[in-house]
Amino acid sequence: MLKDLRDFLRLLEEKGDLVHIAEPVSPRFGVAAGIRKTSDIHGPALYFDHVEGASMPVVGGLYADRRRFIWGLESSPEEIFDKFIQGVRHPIPPRLVADGPCKEVVLTGRDADLSRLPICTHNRKDAGPFITMGLAIARHPEYGNNVAISRLQLFDDQTLGFRSVLPQHMGMYYDAAEQRGEPLPVAVTIGNDPYTTLCSQVPGSVYLDELAIAGGWMGEPVELVPCETIDVAVPATSEIVLEGEMVPGERRVEGPFGEFPGYYHGVTEQPVFRLKAITHRRDPIYVTALTGPPNTDNHVMRQVPLEALVYDRIRQICPTVRDVCVTDGGVTMHVAISIRPTFATQARDVMLAAMSTERIRFKLVVVTDDDVDVRDPVQVEWALATRVQADEDVVILPRQYGAPLDPSAHTPRVWAVMGIDATRPYGRPFAEIADVPGADEFVIPGWTDGARR
Ligand code: MN
């Protein structure tokens, strides 16, 4: 069981999927450059031993490839959807314990100073350094715990910009506190085990307790310790914990920041996080991640949760679903689904289900036959080219709830949804696929899969 970040790093070392960068690297673009490169080549996670001006190492690109998401949940490509759904269906609430490693060092008052952390500047025109892998944890008397990763802009040693917008859950928590005229206590943890990290990415209702889903995946409760200065509990094995609050009515200009659609976003007025304490492990490890053009940690961490929830929904109306792929190029907005149709219009049935699972809204839903591997963009495009007539097979739903930050949307969070039925016409004869006997077994000396051996 991976109990903390260090367990996960050890696992990645064993698999040869964590590489140390011994040369000094700047927190301004240097760390991000490494993460960008490894993200683009499906490379390893990076462990920066020496970040200039920093007293601690920095890990980057932890989830920049799908294989590390799957290893993080101690699963396999074949079983990841089932493992994911099992945790969602059978949550185990977290357990409060008295003490934990995240309390080895406690800094309050003037000692609580964000300049102690190697907060990185990522994209060229970002407004400054941003914490990008902080789990923001808040409580609401009715909604329960919320865990979310938000971008956090470093304003000064004691304050962060905290982008929190409705109807995202953290926006709802802050809105509720603001309506009561009260500050919202928030803890931000950095450097967590994969279960508590990835539970932040599960879409669902505001009542959903993400930490209980982490418990469901683990088969035992996540252990939490109470914060020193606020009424919030945090995962005991966190490397670093920032305790603070968001004051009602306070807004400051935040952004720009290179965001998940691949473009700069901002500038907007956003709430402010005021630091009250920092606690951390002895020899803490800082974690950062990149977002921007696909594919990065930010995309990968969303892909499997969306795929698993949509797969589970579709399986109930179409047990002959083969696979669901939130595509690498689609920045979590596009999904391709393969099925073996068993009646006419079933592809459209599946299409509509994919368009309305929880509050997941894809901009493009493609449904193919099960002879198409939807993880291969060439095969999906082949189906689009040869099994689609746009006047019959395309469905458009105007003005639907959409993702934030789509630069082509006229109104934020409002977009048109397109479904494409790329299955062969049901029940009618269709052209036969040309194939060559013996091709798979044919050996070309010195070559394997497109590369010299
Ligand atoms: Mn939530």
- Gyration radius, rounded: 23 Å
Strand content: 25-35%
Percentage of residues in helical conformation: 10-25%
Q: Roughly how many Å apart are the termini?
A: 37 Å
CATH fold assignment of the largest domain = Pnp Oxidase, Chain A
Count the strands?
Answer: 27
CATH top-level class of the largest domain: Mainly Beta
Query: What global shape is seen?
Result: globular
Can you tell me the number of structural domains? 2
The hetero molecules present are: manganese (II) ion
Summarize the main sheet: 9 strands, antiparallel
Corresponding CATH superfamily of the largest domain: Electron Transport, Fmn-binding Protein, Chain A
Mean pLDDT level: 96
Query: Which segments are poorly predicted (pLDDT under 50) over 5 or more consecutive residues?
Result: none
Number of helices: 11
Structural class comes to alpha+beta
What would CATH call the architecture of the largest domain?
Roll
Walkthrough of the structure:
With 453 residues, the protein is of the alpha+beta class. The protein folds into two domains: 5-288, Pnp Oxidase, Chain A (Roll), CATH 2.30.110.10; 318-422, UbiD C-terminal domain-like (3-Layer(aba) Sandwich), CATH 3.40.1670. 24% of the residues lie in helices and 27% in strands. The protein contains eleven helices and 27 strands. The strands form seven sheets. Strands 5, 6, 7, 8, 9, 10, 11, 14 and 19 form a nine-stranded antiparallel β-sheet that branches. A five-stranded mixed β-sheet has the order 21-22-23-25-24, with helices on both faces. Helix 4 (80-89) packs across helix 7 (210-218), helix 4 crosses helix 8 and helix 8 (297-317) crosses helix 9 (346-354). The longest helix has 21 residues, at 297-317. The protein is globular. The two termini are 37 Å apart. Bound molecules: manganese (II) ion (MN). Manganese (II) ion binds at residues 146, 169, 208, 210.
